[in-house]
Amino acid sequence: MNGEIKAEWFELFAHSVELGSGTQLFAKGDPGDRMYLIVSGTVHLSDSAIDLGPGNLLGEIAIFSPNGTRTEGAVAGTDVRLLAMSREDLLSLYRQHPDFGVYLLHLVTGRLLENNRRLTQAAQAAAAAGA
Question: What is the CATH number of the domain that holds 73?
Answer without folding.
Answer: 2.60.120.10
